[in-house]
Amino acid sequence: MALPPWLHSLPKAARLFHPIALKGISEGLSANSIINAYKVAGPGIRRTLGLEIIRVARDIEKKASTFSSLKKAAYPNVSKIPISETKMGRDYAYHIKWEAVTESGKTVLGDITVSTWNIISREEAEAMAAAFLDSQPAKYGIEHIEKIQLAGIKKSTILGQR
Length: 162
Fold this sequence. Notes:
This protein is of the alpha+beta class. It has 5 helices and 3 strands; from the N terminus they run αααββααβ. 39% of the residues lie in helices and 22% in strands. The longest helix has 19 residues, at 47-65. The radius of gyration is 18 Å and the shape is globular. The model has no long low-confidence stretch (mean pLDDT 84).
């Protein structure tokens, strides 16, 4: 896994803590919960260092989510897209949240990531996600999609490397 440039200068404990912090943030856990879980698991980390890693990761998530209010046909400003903290196969990753109704009438929530080499509009990203979900209804048990919305955008740490 490629590490963000700022993490290379930190001790090994911090580099090991980083993916755990990302997972905890994605699950909505508090900083204390994330640090305590890491300490219980074994190696531990200085509290101030752990909080700094969590703070930086949350800031990136917050910046990425600002694109959820982008107009449908608008293209995001590339200079404002935060750099991803994890390795990406393409230059841009669009995080899409969806809500659908199953064949049994239950509501299901999910996330999907659309990755591209070129910058695309919000409308195009949401259409790509919807097309993918529509192409595999049996896999997800979806009758129809109720709502689909862009939740965030991130760019690769090294753009243009194919």
